[in-house]
Amino acid sequence: MGCKCRKKLIKWGKTRAGTVRWQCPVCGKTKVRQKHGVRHQLLKQFLIDGQTMTQLARKYNVHPLTIRNWLHRTFIQTPPASFSNLPSQPCWLITDATHFQRWGCLLITKVTGVKQPLAVSFHRHEDQVSAVSHLQPLSHLSVTGFTTDGRRGLVLAYRQLFPQAAQQRCLVHVRFRVQSLLTSKPKLALGQELLELVKLLHEVKDGMAATSWWELFSDWYTQNQDQINTRSHHQDLLTRKRHWWYTHKNLRKAAKHVLYAGDHLFTFLSYSNSVSHTNHLEGTFGQRKPSLYRHRGLSRTRIANVLLWMFYYLSKNQKST
User: Fold this and answer.
1) Does 93 have pLDDT greater than 90?
2) Which one of 57, 103, 136, 224 is at 20 to 30 Å from 162 when CA atoms are compared?
3) What would the pLDDT profile of 199-220 be if each residue is shown by its tens digit?
4) Strand (E) positions, 26-175?
């Protein structure tokens, strides 16, 4: 322990808690020697238990700015790797990302049946390069299949690292994508029919139900394909150029979204350890994002490390229990 003046500190009384206080003979600043375990305990109380800087300052008999300085020094550092208990048996992976405006995203991967994440990483963008670096520590696992929201970069990363793994589209993401395009109360009768069909996806529990559902969707799409692809035309009187667009653009997008996802909608029915959604990770995101309001004003690097420290202590708590 030293000072910026590079002078040896001298003892300067004690704090209320009885800890020895040290002072620089040149600038007069005082310090208290902090043990490594105390600082980590402080970090856990701030991130997981939700205690404020003022509460922690009262608890440790220091100024709130001192607590802030201790925490910010730790937020610069990345926590040690704590997700080392990797499964030895064939497993099914679930990966999803949550975005923080336009400056970063958090990628999390879990295995079915295990609450603790296998991999957590923060990246600037959600693309194939980021997904590969996120999944690389898990490349030696025996992966039966994976469930994602269908993002191209993430799927390509899985194909690169686990070429034999089966792919499952998250049915919840499919439903909400269709609903966002059609709204919860579509005006068109075709939109209402498609939305009702998509809502039935969660009731598919076996192969017969999957076949019946796909036949219903295929018949609906075949019968209404002409109306789905209807075009509107307009001719500019000045340039005499003719323009066209799809009349029911959102309806067509929603139908194509389901059609293109069709090969991977019911993969989970063929595997015992699979899962058809990423709700496990959505709940994790919902718990972590509100806690970031206590840390507003931090830089991008520190916000990323705050999230990683949260998962670090959560994993340690789960191991101890």
Assistant:
1) yes
2) 103
3) 999 999 999 999 999 999 999 9
4) 30-32, 91-99, 105-111, 119-123, 143-148, 166-169
Question: What are the boundaries of each domain within the chain?
Answer: 89-162+279-321, 171-276
Q: Which amino acid is at 41?
A: Q
Is-contact 109 116, C-beta < 8 A? no
Confidence of residue 297 (pLDDT cuts 50, 70, 90): low
User: Which residue is associated with the tokens 């219903």?
Assistant: 216
Q: Quickly state the pLDDT bin for 238 (edges 50, 70, 90).
A: confident
pLDDT band at 58 (very low <50, low <70, confident <90, very high): confident
Indicate the SS3 state at residue 110.
strand
Per residue in 119-158, pLDDT (tens digit) is 888 888 889 999 999 999 888 889 999 999 999 999 999 9
Comparing 319 with 116, the larger pLDDT belongs to 116
User: What CA–CA distances, in Å, run from 71 to 66, 94, 104, 218?
Assistant: 9, 32, 22, 57
Query: What residue type is 22 in one-letter code?
Result: W
Distance of CA 287 to the CA centre of its chain: 11
Query: What is the Cα–Cα distance from 165 to 167, expressed in whole angstroms?
Result: 7
Tokens 């002078």, residue located: 7
Output the pLDDT for position 102: 65
Would you give the DSSP letter of residue 81?
P
Superfamily of domain 89-162+279-321: Ribonuclease H-like superfamily/Ribonuclease H (3.30.420.10)
Residue 133, token pair as written in the block: 């670096």
End-to-end alpha carbon distance in the chain? 35
Bridge partners of 21, per DSSP, are: 32
Distance, CA of 93 to chain centre: 14
Contact 142/246 with Cβ under 8 angstroms? no
* Dihedral over Cα of 100, 106, 111, 116: its sign: negative
- Give the CA distances from residue 178 to residues 11, 15, 172, 258, 275, in Å, rounded to whole numbers and listed in that order: 68, 62, 10, 8, 21
CA–CA dist 273, 212 (Å, integer): 24
